[in-house]
Write a structure and sequence with these properties.
Elements (H helix, E strand, L loop, with lengths): L14 E3 L8 E3 L10 E2 L16 H11 L24 H18 L6 E2 L1 H17 L15 H8 L1 E5 L3 H10 L7 H6 L4 E8 L3 E10 L10 E4 L3 E4 L10 E5 L10 E6 L2 E2 L3 E2 L7 E4 L19 E12 L2 E12 L23 E4 L4 E4 L12 H13 L2 H9 L7 E2 L2 E2 H8 L2 H9 L7 E2 L2 E2 H7 L3 H8 L24
Parallel strand pairs: 3-7, 4-6, 9-16
Antiparallel strand pairs: 1-2, 2-5, 5-7, 6-7, 8-10, 10-14, 11-12, 11-15, 13-14, 15-16, 16-17, 17-18, 19-20, 21-22
Helix pairs in contact: 1-2, 2-5, 3-4, 7-8, 7-9, 8-10, 9-10, 9-11, 10-12, 11-12
């Protein structure tokens, strides 16, 4: 059975959806409603999801250019016909482009992207898409009187996201945008953490995405506490920087309710207008009306510099406790030249892969970053390996050690991994260690990581370390040069 924490219901609604800048419109039906148990995968394989560091601007730009742009250029090759009611199919290349587009969005949203299209679900989606195009309409419950009606098509219609006027990768864009659909149900199904196997079917003008296929075991995605879109971090401006693009935040867990939550958006500390949907306890949805409307005069919102939008959610009930959520979305133009290193990484002290949660009862902030490790779980052998890897400048091994439970503040003769990385100028390692809560203030004979980085003129690292503390006096300058130790013992 489907995990109860993900049980959702949606309001049936037809809408006209304008996704692209052109005058052409796409029609989305209501989101499908699950009426039967969903198959849970029996696979025990490890996740092969594509990992994207959404807090790194350059990584997001490269991911957009390599994993999104190319797949929108693959041509539709449908072999069916509405005249003869031939279902037909598309080329493997076209279906793969559609799948890759869906994987892109899931990777950006931080949910598992090791998904696939299964032929047993594709046949339902193709039959449904044929019916939608032949009838020139949309329905999750089409009658037998519909043109090109079939049992397979009816099954596909009731279990799929449907679009008329968009196909393939463009249809995935439409489901994620989901403008005008109350509760953004198409987006929810497309980005659902437990999704494992979908089905796809495209004709010339219609598409069906079968969403009630195979689902992963709940424990595979249990670490995902929420899904937001646009996601927190760096985001290409086409994914949300406009007033008619719905934003959403969905927290998971028993006793979670979004109905009484309130949203506030700020740019440069000033609130902007928004319209918040009401009524659905399963997800929070709002429209940022204060963002500029794309038009010819403003080059359709094409940004000339990054724009940070702060989101504050109050009175959100998560697992029975009222909490406040804060996160930042930084819209970027991927075509702009790379910014300097100091501007390409978000300060993880205020914005992390998970949200900073403020508990109303205590008014204290606790960071729910999944990389945080309990002190009792630190592994001494792995922690020693962390020091060696940091000394050698091997960020891959540093991350491996941290993920295995290394103490980010473990020291050898007074030297921590952060101190080594700061002294030798290993910027990537500094970023990794800071994400895992490495302590900036630890000293050895009056020298700390900040002082060491400044001594060696690694100014990007100095900025990273300064951002982690309000105490600028931590920049200690001794008359004596800092002593350098040999590689830590394994």
């Amino acid at each position: 059975m489907m995990n109860s924490k993900f049980t959702l219901t949606f309001i049936a609604l037809f809408c006209i959806f304008s996704f692209s800048i052109s005058a052409e419109s796409n029609q989305l039906g209501s989101a499908p409603i699950s009426k039967k148990p969903i198959t849970i995968t029996k696979e025990e394989t490890k996740s092969r999801s594509t990992q994207i560091d959404i807090l790194n601007r350059n990584a997001v730009v490269q991911f957009y250019k390599s994993n999104y742009i190319p797949y929108g250029k693959v041509k539709n090759s449908w072999t069916g016909s509405t005249k003869s009611c031939k279902i037909g199919s598309n080329s493997k290349e076209y279906d793969e482009a559609t799948l890759q587009n869906l994987k892109y969005y899931r990777s950006m949203a931080g949910v598992p992207s090791d998904i696939r299209f299964e032929e047993k679900y594709n046949k339902f989606a193709r039959a449904a898409a044929l019916m939608m195009e032949a009838q020139n309409g949309l329905s999750h419950n089409p009658p037998v009187s519909w043109q090109c009606y079939s049992k397979e098509g009816r099954e596909g219609a009731g279990s799929s996201n449907l679009c008329l006027g968009c196909v393939g990768p463009d249809a995935i864009d439409a489901y994620i945008t989901d403008s005008g659909v109350i509760g953004v149900g198409h987006r929810i199904w497309a980005l659902h953490p437990n999704q494992k196997a979908f089905g796809t079917g495209s004709t010339k003008r219609a598409h069906a995405l079968y969403v009630f296929g195979e689902w992963r075991k709940s424990e595979e995605s249990s670490q995902i506490k929420n899904v937001s879109w646009p996601p927190k971090g760096f985001v290409p401006y086409k994914f949300g920087y406009r007033p008619d693009y719905p934003w959403s935040y969905q927290a998971f867990g028993s006793g979670t309710n979004h109905k009484e939550a309130k949203v506030k958006m700020l740019i440069n500390g000033r609130s902007i207008a928004l319209d918040q949907e009401s009524g659905d306890s399963g997800i929070l949805v709002w429209y940022p009306r204060g963002l500029p409307k794309p038009n010819k005069e403003n080059d359709y919102n094409k940004l000339t510099q990054d724009v940070s939008v702060d989101v504050e959610i109050s009175n959100l009930l998560i697992e029975g406790k009222v909490q406040n959520i804060k996160y930042t979305v930084i819209f970027i133009n991927p075509d702009l030249e790379e910014l300097s290193a100091s501007n390409t990484t978000i300060n993880t002290n205020t914005t992390s892969q998970d949200n900073n949660i403020i508990n109303n009862s205590t008014s204290t902030i606790s960071n729910s970053d999944s990389s945080e490790t309990n002190t009792a779980d630190y592994n001494k052998e792995v922690s020693s390996s962390l020091l060696s890897s940091a000394y050698e400048g091997n960020n891959k091994k540093v991350l491996e050690a941290l993920n295995k439970g290394a103490d980010p503040n473990f020291s050898h003769q007074g030297w921590t991994a952060l101190m080594y990385a700061s002294y030798f100028g290993y910027e990537e390692i500094v970023i990794s260690l800071l994400k895992y809560k490495a302590d900036v203030s630890i000293e050895l004979n009056g020298w700390n990581a900040l002082g060491l980085a400044d001594h060696k003129k690694h100014m990007n690292i100095v900025k990273l370390l300064q951002a982690k503390t309000t105490n600028r006096s931590l920049l200690i300058k001794n008359k004596e040069k800092p002593p350098i130790k040999t590689v830590p013992a394994p």
